[in-house]
Automatic annotation (TrEMBL):
InterPro entries documented for this protein: AAA+_ATPase (IPR003593), CHLI-like (IPR045006), MCM_dom (IPR001208), Mg_chelat-rel_C (IPR025158), Mg_chelatse_chII-like_cat_dom (IPR000523), P-loop_NTPase (IPR027417), Ribosomal_Su5_D2-typ_SF (IPR020568), Ribsml_uS5_D2-typ_fold_subgr (IPR014721)
Protein name: ATP-binding protein
Keywords carried by this UniProt record: ATP-binding, Nucleotide-binding
GO molecular function: ATP binding; DNA binding
Domain AAA+ ATPase: residue ranges: 233-417
SMART domains referenced in this protein's UniProt entry, alphabetically: AAA
């Protein structure tokens, strides 16, 4: 009787669970049994592993073989267990010393010819292994850079099972021919799966200067102010205006204004993109804020996550630490829009499906863009809008009150006049991004030790008691509350925006001008504050 064990990782959403892969050989009729709650693709690993072992020059044991995946109660899926299964079987057959693999974590799919193919989710899998105390990991060669992002872990990238057998058996490592120059490695097809996230519009910007520039935007002083405030404080934004006014143009330039991701944030974003299959090969670490713009026909599952079995990341998770842009927001399903209310408040989304419950990160900056009516000409004088008032009301009511109450900034984007186009654009992305970075540094210094990093995360109670505004600064806000124009949640959000505006101006605390501008940006009602105390210069 032979017995050996190795380790692999099962992914539940973007979190990993270390799985012990045990192989047991006993005398009897040759058979291969796989137990431990595997899914269809994992059950098929029996044929892949057998062919890969034989085609790698090793002998397949002609005995009764049982491979167990422990803990058996955790659902396991995907082809990433192939490598661990093959090595544990060879160790049980004494082709490899079982002691060599007892504390080794192996992740990778096997081709029938013995090649090791990359799989999605390597980064979160290696992170889970490191947190569990494992220090040695074997991954496909193409994903070794992604696995090496985890500190304290020794990573071995292999191209074929034959190479791995030679390394573990302390034999000369055979040379494998690389992919011919000019040809794309076919093994990389497993990393970018069509429909796994590309359709949701996820992408990353190239950093300041490498993406769309704010200097391209002509006019729109108030909208640029709102964009800067949103970036500085992490405030959600609603842009309303006729078609062609520049709403999409402004939203596409918001990621470039956001500060670069910290190391921790980069790992979080990379882990999500790796699981979703939208991480570009050769770029193992996402360093800039992602931008996700799903089509308005996207379902609720496409937005918050879903799929067969265990849920997969949706658009809100692909936009984690970045921007989620919903163009033509009233055209989205009402259920899909209301499903955003939980992640907007908590920074994560909990999705329950038949395969289990998954908690996915979803701390994003949301930008909504909407026309004033179905034809888009309702607010234009002499435009010939023929939408009846009832149609306009129904159209605008597609975005529910509870959702809009969670939006801090509501900006009316006016049509651009010919004079503004002739005068050129405003400040560049680099100039605005520098001010945003300074404002975030002031907020981080004030919030140090609290667990919050931007003003939009601070609870309202703390803003009303711990960090107070200048005396008399809230008079306009109190009047709006008395008139029913502002809710208690709205008051808290006005205070958050006011603190962001004060940070942009370098003030120790908000004064009446900052609160007035915050109130104008919150309600969308012009009060003359934007011209006096605009954050954009």
């Amino acid at each position: 009787m032979g017995f050996a064990r190795a380790c692999s990782v099962a992914l539940v959403g973007v979190e990993g669970v270390v799985v012990e892969v045990q192989a047991d050989l006993e005398p009897g009729v040759a058979a291969f049994t796989l137990v431990g709650l595997p899914d269809k693709s994992l059950v098929e690993s029996r044929d892949r592993v057998r062919a890969a072992v034989v085609n790698s020059g090793a002998e397949w044991p002609q005995k009764k073989l049982t491979v167990g995946l422990s803990p058996a109660s955790v659902p396991k899926g995907g082809s990433g267990f192939d490598l661990a299964v093959a090595v544990s079987v060879l160790a049980a057959a004494e082709r490899i010393d079982p002691r060599q693999i007892a504390d080794l974590v192996l992740i990778g799919e096997l081709g029938l010819d013995g090649r090791v193919r990359p799989v999605r989710g390597v980064l979160p899998a290696v992170l889970a292994a490191a947190e569990a105390g494992y220090e040695q990991v074997v991954v496909p060669e193409q994903t070794a850079g992604e696995a090496s992002l985890v500190p304290g872990v020794s990573v071995l990238g292999v191209r074929t099972l034959r190479q791995l057998i030679a390394v573990l058996a302390d034999e000369p490592v055979p040379h494998e021919e690389p992919v011919a120059a000019g040809r794309r490695d076919p093994a990389l097809a497993g990393l970018l799966v069509p429909g796994a996230g590309v359709g949701s519009g996820a992408r990353t910007v190239s950093g300041v200067g490498g993406g769309p520039d704010l200097a391209d935007v002509a006019g729109q002083r108030t909208a640029r102010t709102g964009l800067e405030v949103a970036a500085a404080g992490g405030h959600h934004l609603l842009l309303t205006g006729p078609p062609g006014a520049g709403k999409t143009m402004l939203a596409e330039r918001l990621p470039g204004v956001l500060p670069p991701l910290t190391r921790r944030e980069s790992l979080e974003v990379t882990a999500v993109h790796s699981v979703a299959g939208v991480l570009p090969p050769g770029e193992p670490l996402v360093r800039t804020a992602p931008y996700c713009a799903p089509h308005h026909s996207a379902t609720m599952q496409a937005l918050v996550g879903g799929g067969h079995g265990l849920p997969r990341p949706g658009a809100v998770s692909l936009a984690h630490r970045g921007v989620l842009f919903l163009d033509e927001a009233p055209e989205f399903s009402g259920k899909a829009l209301d499903a955003l209310r939980q992640p907007l408040e908590s920074g994560h989304v909990v999705v329950a499906r038949s395969g289990g419950v998954v908690r996915l990160p979803a701390r994003f900056l949301m930008v909504l863009a909407a026309n004033p009516c179905p034809c888009g000409r309702h607010t234009l004088h002499g435009s010939g809008c023929e939408c009846p008032p009832s149609v306009v009301r129904r159209y605008q009511a597609r975005m529910s009150g509870p959702l809009l109450d969670r939006v801090d900034l509501r900006i009316e984007v006016e049509p651009v006049h010919r004079s503004a186009l002739a005068g050129g654009g405003g400040e560049s992305t680099a100039v605005v991004a520098a001010r945003v970075l300074e404002a975030r540094a002031r907020a981080a210094a004030r919030l140090r030790g609290t667990g919050w990093s931007v003003n939009s995360e601070v609870p309202g109670h703390e803003l009303r008691t711990r960090w107070t505004v200048a005396p008399g600064a809230l008079e306009a806000v109190e009047r709006d509350m008395d008139r029913g124009l502002l809710t208690a949640r709205g008051l808290d959000r006005v205070l958050r925006v006011a603190w962001t505006i004060a940070d942009l101006h370098g003030r120790d605390r908000p004064d009446a001008r900052d609160v007035a501008l915050a109130l104008e940006l919150r309600t969308g009602i012009a009060r003359g504050a934007a011209g006096l105390a605009g954050a954009a210069r």
